[in-house]
Design goal:
Elements (H helix, E strand, L loop, with lengths): L4 H10 L2 E4 L4 H4 L5 E12 L19 E5 L5 E4 L4 E12 L3 E7 L1 H4 L3 E2 L6 E2 L4 E10 L5 E4 L3 E9 L34
Antiparallel strand pairs: 1-5, 2-3, 2-5, 2-11, 4-10, 5-9, 6-8, 6-11, 7-9
Length: about 190
């Protein structure tokens, strides 16, 4: 079941959903979602000696990326056809019986901005900042500002608490992330 605005407030008050900094419900709360703000840390791909990304190659994909930090409220220009990782300003913690989904905002989608390409689900027990995969599908640069509302989370209840929440998984790759992290998919391939 997807939580309504009333239930989102209730779950936050009860601590089943933790959002830091505390949300401004007048600005951020929708009928069944909570808007989040764009953080100030981005990761972009930099030129590399490798002509492709080999998912089985035992290489740290962080080496292919450059981290960019901007001041709060500062602009970040997303060029046409560019892809970057970004974080939300907010830290999120979910209880063991709740999951969340991240969606882009329609007003930004109408400009050609994609907020996530595949990673929209946050498992029960999630802790950390949400990482977004931003892409500009348009033909003109889009200027984004740190602190602007960038995406929305919807929350869904599970039939009961899960046996192994994300925070207790031995191989949780992205737990408690505070900045965008490059893909760790190559950890899934056997040596």
């Amino acid at each position: 079941m997807i939580l309504s605005d009333k239930d989102i407030k209730k779950y936050i008050k009860e601590g089943k959903i933790k959002i830091k900094p505390k949300p401004d419900f007048k600005e951020q709360l929708g009928a069944c979602s909570l808007d989040l703000h764009l953080g100030n840390v981005f990761k972009t791909f930099k030129p590399s000696q490798y002509p492709y990304l080999d998912l089985k190659r035992k290489i740290n994909f962080e080496k292919f990326m450059e981290e960019i930090k901007i001041e709060n409220g500062a602009p970040f220009i997303l060029q046409p056809k560019e892809f970057v990782l970004a974080i939300t300003k907010e830290d999120i913690t979910l209880s063991d019986d709740l999951m969340a989904r991240l969606d882009g905002r329609s007003s930004l989608g109408r400009l050609g901005l994609v907020v996530h390409t595949t990673a929209a689900r946050f498992d029960p027990g999630w802790q950390g900042k949400a990482v977004m995969e931003l892409g500009n599908l348009g033909i003109m640069p889009v200027i984004l500002y740190s602190g602007m509302r960038i995406c929305a989370l919807t929350f869904e209840t599970l039939s009961g608490p899960c046996e192994t929440p994300y925070s207790k998984k031995k191989k949780a790759k992205y737990i408690k992330q505070k900045s965008p992290q490059a893909s760790k998919i190559n950890q899934e391939f056997k040596k």
